[in-house]
Amino acid sequence: MIKHEMTPDQYKARIEELLQYNKTSPLGSIARLVEIDLIDFDLEKKKTHFRHIVNGNDINRIHSVHGGFLTAIGDTCMSFSAGPLLQEDKVITTIDMHINTFRPFFLNDVMDVYCEILHLGKRTVHAQAKLFKDDELCTVVTQNYAVIPSQKVT
Asked: What is the pTM of this model?
């Protein structure tokens, strides 16, 4: 279920909280490897813009960004965009994901990730992340999430 009211400042604060948790959590998380910064957002349109600078951890043996990392950054940015819009007792988990890569990213490239929440419902969320380099579309990650009750980790 969707939160009733949220101001842009509350939305930004929640995303920043998730980014900080990502960096400091003692829990194991692949998302910890995804170093992103929130650049901009439009709460009304459910759009966000994140940025990542490609580093040596992202590179595969042919010196481009690993496809698994592209899916991880897409998933992380989309879930950080959608999660704050849910009621406090709800979270999302991946149902399926699809990736199309048109151009590679390389070491030190600036990766701009533009996310859009296409559907935000009681039971599912559908989102898309478009990854750009120098204003050229390189990758599109589309994902469906299930909205489920939050579980406390002890």
From this structure: 0.87
37 lies in a domain?
yes
Cα–Cα distances in Å, from 46 out to 37, 43, 71, 81, 127?
17, 5, 20, 8, 10
Looking at the DSSP assignment, which residues form a beta bridge with residue 140? 100, 130
User: For residue 36, what are its two tokens?
Assistant: 């992103």
83 contacts: CB under 8 Å, gap ≥ 6? 14, 18, 91, 92
The answer to whether position 33 is within a domain reads yes
* Of the candidates 46, 50, 63, the residue with the CA atom closest to the CA atom of residue 106: 63
The model's pLDDT over 76-115, given as tens digits with 9 standing for 90+, comes to 999 989 988 988 889 999 999 999 999 999 999 999 999 9
CB 82 within 8 A of CB 127: yes
Domain holding 47, by residue range, is 8-149
